[in-house]
Amino acid sequence: MMNVISNHVEGFYGKKTTINGIDGYKQGDYIYFTIPKQNNEEIYMEQKEVGHFLIKKGYSHLAVPIGNRQGSLVTKMNQQDYCVFQTKLANNFTGKSHPELLADFHNKGEAYPYEPNYLSSYGKWKILWQNRIAGFENFYNQQYQERPVSKFNRLFLDTFPYLIGLSENALQYLQESEAETRYHDSDQPCITFQRYNNQLQQPVIWSSDLTYDHPVRDIAEYIRPALLAEDESSIKELKHFFTAYEKVRPLSVFSWRLLYARLLFPVHLFDFVEAGFTHNNPELVYREYKDLLEQHAKYERNLTRFYDNMDVDARTLGIPLLDW
What we know:
Elements lengths: L1 H5 L8 E5 L2 E6 L2 E7 L4 H16 L5 E4 L8 E4 L2 E9 L9 H12 L15 H21 L5 H27 L12 E4 L11 E2 L3 E4 L2 H8 L8 H17 L4 H12 L2 H10 L5 H23 L1 H4 L4 H4 L7
Helix pairs in contact: 3-7, 4-5, 5-8, 5-10, 6-8, 9-10
InterPro entries: CotS-like, Kinase-like_dom_sf
Protein name: Spore coat protein YutH
């Protein structure tokens, strides 16, 4: 991979290193990673611009794609397209708690001067979710014709109506919530992550993980796994998270409703199925998906009690509650 990096960095002579299981090469103050291309170049370009904005805001450990000698972000080597990401290792200790770090990240990301053309999902959840459902319905119809049928395939086919039902509930709640007028400045779009899982406290933040959306996107994806558990400690941790986050960046009624709508949409199930059909161990995927579906009863119970558990008086505020 040094040949790829050499097309992006003149006179490259880096020394191999590994960070979070990803191989890279260190040269001077910088570390370079060779990553197979996964998006079109327009998306990488916007993520690069967003990344440089965040670096100026203090996130020096953010990895951004760099151009090659031909002026492109992509280099082809052995019939494979690669991007080269550059970052600095930095001491990221701030003394702030994780929810404070996330709220601060959203405050800084809100200052991004324009809405990206390709990255932005702000105000587009309804159409994006509808497209995701339509894509899976087509996939379901294809799988229905497949023979032989694996155990994972059969489980997906049998439970797909359940996924559609959850999705329709989420779409209805989202549509009603979009009419909510109790919002404030913190409901403006900002830089977010596609699937936030505490990247802010990792040695490297990847610009390829970034998107542009409402800040509750990150909150929903971070707390989603905790809702699959059913114990007092998880609920207490979530309450602490929201208390600390709101000290920096309060949530409006609109934010709470949008957050709840996103938690209702079963993106974690869709993501699992999508990855499962490309996995090389169908028996393992079958067992894991079966376990995930069995855990979902806990998820639904936690969503039913979500506002109460987070000390949000939904009835007084006139926030609709979902009747499972």
